[in-house]
Amino acid sequence: MEEVGMVEEKNLNSSQEEQQESKSENNTNEFEKDSNESDKTIEKLQEQLKTLEEENSVLKQQNSELKDSYLRSRADFDNYKKRIQREFEEKEKFLVQKVIEDILPALDDLERAVDAAKDADDVTALHEGVTMISSQILSVLEKKWGLVKFSALNEPFDPNKHEAFMIEQGDYKQPVVIEEFQKGYSLHERIIRPARVKVGMPAPSGQNNKDDMSDSRAEEHTQEKQSDEKGEN
């Protein structure tokens, strides 16, 4: 019996040892497995890190190139603005050159007329020559540059076109231009100088006074209109 008990005890111990060995072996396998997985994870992270570093290097290079491109573009734009400003100032300086070139022949004729007038006895011929030159200049300005001289005499008073320099009350049905002191001019249908005129105003009831007098209301109306036009220009 004792021998049987010893055998059983020995078998039990052997079985326990085998179980412990098996458990130890399993633990070792699991550790190795975990270690392998950790190594793979580390390798994967290292690869990702390397990829990110490469991408970062590329982005830095692109950023540097974009910065250089921006600085060059900014410098080009600044140079462009300076060039445009110089060209604008140059054009503004010689803006009336073409106009002057067009009226130079008339000015030459006027100069010759002035020289001829020194020894001229015929005032009529001189008057005709100056009148012709004046018409020549006006014709050039009208045909090539859109300048129009307009007359206001006997027209209804229009503060858009006329400047009331003097007022006369009398037997008038409505304000009307009765005398013209200075011609008016328009450029491409825009009034650039109103005609300076004397205006005949209807007299108050029971009065027919034709004495020259100033009418502050008409003058103020004209001045306000001219001020508005200057503001628009």
TrEMBL record:
Disordered: region residues: 1-41, 196-233
Main localization (coarse): cytoplasm
A Pfam entry, by short name: GrpE
Top-level taxon of the source organism: Bacteria
Biased composition (Basic and acidic residues): 20-41, 209-233
Residues annotated as transmembrane: none
Keyword list, A-Z: Chaperone, Cytoplasm, Stress response
Chaperone in keyword set: yes
Annotated compartments: Cytoplasm
KW Cytoplasm (keyword) present: yes
Subunit details: Homodimer.
Family: Belongs to the GrpE family.
Function: Participates actively in the response to hyperosmotic and heat shock by preventing the aggregation of stress-denatured proteins, in association with DnaK and GrpE. It is the nucleotide exchange factor for DnaK and may function as a thermosensor. Unfolded proteins bind initially to DnaJ; upon interaction with the DnaJ-bound protein, DnaK hydrolyzes its bound ATP, resulting in the formation of a stable complex. GrpE releases ADP from DnaK; ATP binding to DnaK triggers the release of the substrate protein, thus completing the reaction cycle.
The protein, known as: Protein GrpE
Organism: Rarispira pelagica
